[in-house]
Design goal:
- It is a single chain.
- The chain has about 280 residues and is α/β, with parallel strands linked by helices.
- It has 2 domains: about 200 residues, Spore Coat Polysaccharide Biosynthesis Protein SpsA, Chain A; about 60 residues.
- It has 9 helices and 7 strands.
- Strand 1, helix 1 and strand 2 form a beta-alpha-beta unit.
- Helix 1 runs parallel beside helix 2 and helix 7 runs antiparallel to helix 8.
Length: about 280
């Protein structure tokens, strides 16, 4: 199994993340792939120290000069030596049983991708981008997966379908034009008839620092829904969702900004696709 961590200019967060990676306990064969997404801080020093401190662990360090989380993740998967890989964000802390938990999900040969819960390590953090779901009901194939159920901070795939589907779309995700690389790819898996599963781990952001991120997520939601409109299994549902989300934002929440971001994201993705 491959555990993948992509990072850019967040050396201190990465250092804390790797402390928990080093504490993973499993009898299974696994590797760590660290992707430096063209950082200009001391990320390389943190990676070098981690490699030196873990001589018994198979660790590979990659540098992706194409900025964008999708590019770094796709590079890591191409280099991965295993059929199953797990993505972890550089500001998250995996549990000691993480590898065994992932293996348990993929012991079902029908499972081709999985998302997971993301719980706060510090309960004073904002709950944005968390997922306290404990229900392990799998994602049925050919069903639209709503934003937030599958997040890149705790995300797993099998390599063969990942490569067949083209991996992450660089237009989406950190460093891209739109948010939601995780949801966008999960929906391509679902559209392709693949079944998904579910697990959990800690993550967080302080209250009052999240509005810009919320706006980016709403913008990305518009783009993901627009991209899925041309999918026969998701098209009508996504067209209705765009209208419903805009109406709900304006009429119920009185949130003009959210409605505007959804519209902007949908229009921008449509214009990019038309070129």
């Amino acid at each position: 199994m491959s555990l993948i961590v992509s990072t850019r200019n967040r050396a201190e967060q990465l250092k804390a993340c790797l402390t928990y990676v080093a504490a993973i306990q499993t009898s299974l064969s696994w590797e760590v792939i660290l992707v430096d997404n063209n950082s200009n801080d001391n990320t390389q020093d943190i990676i070098a120290d981690f490699i030196q401190a873990q001589p018994a662990l198979t660790i590979r360090s990659l540098v992706c000069t194409q900025v964008g989380g999708a590019n770094g993740h796709n590079m890591a998967v191409r280099e991965a030596q295993s059929d199953i890989f797990s993505f972890v964000d550089d500001d998250c802390y995996v549990s000691p049983s993480h590898i065994d938990d992932v293996a348990a999900i993929f012991s079902d040969p029908e499972i081709q991708f999985a998302g997971g819960g993301i719980i706060l390590h510090d309960e004073t953090d904002d709950r944005l981008t968390t997922n306290y779901e404990t229900n392990a009901v799998p994602f049925a194939p050919r069903k639209f997966i709503e934003a937030g159920y599958v997040q890149g901070a705790n995300l797993m795939f099998r390599k063969k379908p990942f490569m067949e589907l083209g991996g992450f779309d660089p237009l989406f995700g950190a460093g891209g034009t739109f948010s939601g690389a995780d949801s966008e790819l999960a929906n391509r898996f679902s559209k392709g008839g693949f079944k998904g599963g579910f697990i959990r781990h800690p993550h967080g952001r302080k209250p009052g620092t999240t509005q810009k991120l919320v706006n980016f997520y709403d913008y990305g939601m518009g783009a993901i829904l627009m991209k899925n409109i041309d999918m026969t299994t998701h098209g009508l549902h996504c067209a209705i969702r765009i209208v419903r989300e805009i109406a709900f934002s304006i009429l119920k929440k009185r949130d003009i900004t959210r409605a505007r971001q959804i519209i902007r994201g949908a229009r921008h993705y449509h214009s990019r696709r038309a070129k």
